[in-house]
Amino acid sequence: MKLRLFALLWLGVGLCWQLPTVSAQTPTPLPETLPAGLTIHVVQRDENLFRIALRYSTTPEYLAQLNGISNVTMIQVGQRLLVPAGDAAALPFATPTLAPTLAASDTNANLSAAPTFGIHTVAAGETLFSIAQQYRLTVNDLTAANNLVDATLIFAGQQLFIPGSAATEIPEVLPAPLTEITIKPLIFTEGETGSIRLITATSVTITGKFLGQELPIIAEANNTQHSLLVGIPIYTETGIYPAEFVITVADGTKTNYTLNIRVAGGAYTSQSLTISDELAPLLSQAPQDYELGLLQRLTSSFTPERYFTGAFGLPAAAPMNSPFGTRRSYNGGIYTGYHTGADFASAPGSPILAVAPGKVVLVDLLNIRGNTVVLDHGWGVFSAYSHQSQLSVQLEQMVMTGDIIGMAGATGRTTGPHLHWEVWVNGVPVNPLQWTREIFP
Ligand SMILES: [Zn+2]
Q: Which of 104, 389, 419, 428 might form a disulfide with 231, Cβ 3.0–4.6 angstroms?
């Protein structure tokens, strides 16, 4: 716990180094004791921050932040960097394809994502302008990211860093009948929630698709206000993805509208857990897939009524001891998945609270999650509470924020008593803590 706190404090210090007052690339002093979950990487010849980030399954932005680096193109051979612990070579996840080689063969190509960051090796005949266009960036974006003095002086074989952190741009002029678009936040992040709101001058019907999925859209204000929530699956590659809308006006005329939304990588780390022999059979993929499938089906249903308003409360009066998104390996095995919720160190028997108003849609003893309650908050948003010792709600029951739904325990696959809390948006597990800080839509 102390170590964890120290890590958080230390990260806090790292963030402060990002203040613009830091001018030169002063070598970051490394702490005497390594914060939990981090290790040291010594920069090798031919390495850049992007390649190092790939190796440790993180993003260049996260490494830059962690190490107080203000210019991601400027790292030196022999420089010692803090990186997430865990042998990246053991990760079974597909290594992200280096931009711009995302091609037809890439699994994400059907999402027609434009690669947005990475390293671009300049080919003969290319100009900074043509490269910028390819990544939907401006020449200024590229010159700034690469410290280029003269935008006309680039050469074949030169490696350019492609920044991916610019926010989604909403066009100033929108095609009728659209009058306004609001995107929150302006850059979506893998494993988090985003919302889009479209305002139209007249009453219309809108359907939408994003990341290959049809999205439920809520129409309000006499069909002139259209809201949608998006759960961005973890492992969504950084890139620009089109949100494709079809707007149908009263006489049946259809207008297609595409909004290009940036998705950034999340700063998730990895963790190794040990569980007893008795529970080891549950490590096989089958029960995990079964439960994920169950929750996915349950949370893919859509209640048009919205029960929640404002930010979510916390589900327990206990410190969070394991965040969402951490890649996990059990008993020294390979990293087989990620943490689909946030854990709270709740003492056995302490109350578990509903985080927002909702309807109870599942009360069950599951193999991995143990005693679990799932609440439907409407608009495709659900919360789940697992490992409880006792459940005190019934199916179909309506609950309010702060209502006691059960007691903390250690049922299911767990290393000890705690609450495992999940939030699902349209069938996608997302970072639940974001819902306690941000108001959607
Ligand atoms: Zn958990």
A: 428
pTM confidence score: 0.64
- Residue 296 shares a structural domain with residue 433: yes
- Cα-to-centroid distance, 369 and ligand 1 (Å): 8
Let me know whether 255 and 390 are in one domain.
no
Calculate how far, in angstroms, residue 218's C-alpha sits from the geometric centre of ligand 1. Answer: 31
Range of the domain at 360: 270-437
For residue 363, give the CATH number of its domain: 2.70.70.10
Ligand 1 centroid–CA 232 distance in Å is 19
Q: Compute the distance from residue 323 Cα to the ligand 1 centre, in Å.
A: 8
Give the Cα separation of 126 and 117 in Å (integer): 17
Q: How far apart are CA 207 and CA 127, in angstroms?
A: 38
CA distance 34 to 362: 42
- 64-76 pLDDT per residue, tens: 777 777 666 667 7
Rounded to the nearest angstrom, the distance between the alpha carbon of 326 and the centre of ligand 1 is 10
- Does 389 map to a domain? yes
User: What are the pLDDT digits (tens) for 238-256?
Assistant: 788 899 999 999 999 999 9
* Residues 288 and 260 reside in one and the same domain: no
Kindly report, residue by residue over 138-161, the tens digit of the pLDDT: 888 788 777 777 777 788 877 777
Centre of ligand 1 to C-alpha 42, Å, is: 33
How far, in Å, CA of 402 to CA of 286, rounded?
Answer: 34
Cα of 420 vs centre of ligand 1, distance in Å, is: 4
Q: How far apart are CA 232 and CA 191, in angstroms?
A: 5
